[in-house]
Design goal:
The chain is mainly alpha-helical. It has one domain (2-165). Helix content is 68%, strand content 3%. The protein contains 6 helices and 2 strands. The chain has helices at 2-16, 22-42, 64-83, 93-116, 127-146, 148-165; strands at residues 49-51, 119-121. A two-stranded antiparallel sheet has the order 1-2. It is globular, with a radius of gyration of 16 Å. 20% of the residues are buried.
């Protein structure tokens, strides 16, 4: 099913993504991937959520790492090309656009969690945390496009907050 989600998002990016401006979005795509790679390294042995493949491509997407890499290299660039490529300039539309993307990511996670069992939450993570996480994530993507250094600084604060809320026992840090 992860394969299906990623193919759908890739097709959406082909239709609605700003492919002509990909160079403008490339640093933000890397920022997005870097954040997820950092999460995967820090929480490698102490997951707060884990991806599973329960339907299609079980032989290819055999564990969290493979699924996470698929998401990083297909879903994240596709998301950025659409999200930032069509980001509205009208002030009142900006929060609606962010809200739409938070809703899309949250609804996919909810369906994946409740119906397809493609993700599990651990160590206190919940859908409420996912909503907050996605809200911050989409605001950070926009901030990174406009002010990358500020976005990096705010990201450090966000990461420290998450590590405070979801402390990793030292025995899991290698």
């Amino acid at each position: 099913m992860h394969l299906v989600y990623n193919v759908v998002l890739l097709l959406a990016a082909f239709k609605w993504g700003d492919w002509r401006g990909w160079r403008e979005y490339y640093p933000t795509i890397l920022f997005f991937i870097m954040g997820d790679l950092l999460k995967n390294v820090l929480f490698h042995d102490y997951w707060i959520w884990t991806f599973h493949e329960t339907m299609f491509a079980k032989n290819i997407l055999v564990n969290h790492t493979f699924i996470s890499l698929l998401i990083m290299f297909i879903a994240y660039p596709a998301t950025v090309l659409i999200y930032l490529g069509r980001f509205p300039e009208t002030k009142w539309k900006k929060p609606l656009w962010i809200g739409l993307w938070v809703f899309l990511y949250v609804i996919v996670e909810y369906i994946s969690l409740q119906y397809f069992h493609l993700i599990t939450h651990h160590h206190g993570w919940s859908m409420y945390w996912s909503i907050l996480f996605n809200l911050v994530m989409f605001m950070m993507l926009r901030l990174h496009q406009k002010q990358p250094l500020l976005a990096l600084g705010v990201s450090v604060i966000w990461i420290l907050f998450l590590l405070y809320m979801f402390p990793i026992p030292l025995k899991y840090i290698k």
